[in-house]
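HUMAN: Quick job: go over this next protein and say how the chain folds.
***
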Amino acid sequence: MAVAVLASIGVGVFALTDDGGGRSTATSQEPGGRDDGRDAPEEGGPDREGDGGGDEPRRVESGAVTDALSGISLPVPDGWYGEELQAGAALTSKTSYDCPGDTSKTCVKGGAYSAPAVVLGTRGDTAEEVAKADIAANAEESYGGEAYGRITSHDVLASKAVTVAGQKGYLVRWKAVTQEGSDGFVQSLAFPSPNRPDQMVVVRFGVDTDQQQKILDEITEGIEVAEGGRGNGQDV
């Protein structure tokens, strides 16, 4: 239940990827997304098919979707689809519903997207610092605001080092409790880009708690160096 239309998932990414078309989907991302109507079209839910017009990203229904900027690929889980963005890549659950806090908006069961930390405005010199600095903003974008009501509390489920695409990374995972129900699992994952070791990549996740946490692990473990990319990271 948590992710909605991914309309605010990454404000920075939104600015880079939405050039006026107003697509309200993972293109203008939000991890556990919600459709807060920002620059959204009349209907643009995350589950709609691209019509091939303008700069609509191509939907990837299986396999993996590429984040060419960061040199990685994200696995597309069953029941989800992926989209390659100008400043990252996004994954969105195909299951949608009326947002509990505002039924005029459409929410989805889960979402994730990647972007450079600098694009999101997340600061830190290490993967751990970046992940810890990002998680609160991630939770607010995914489950805060009108779509779910404010976040009333959170539990820290994980805070640990991980290896992602051969790089030393770090993830922080919360359970966010919302005022209007549809609580969510949110996760911020940070690691150096295999393409540019001096550039930190952030992957934001948001998944309703009626889904299993293993979907977060599946995506995290499935992130790989994209074809043509390079990585020389070591295991943690």
Q: What stands out?
A: Residues 1-54, 229-236 have pLDDT under 50 and may be disordered. The CA atoms of residues 103 and 231 lie 44 Å apart. The radius of gyration is 16 Å. The longest helix spans residues 127-143.
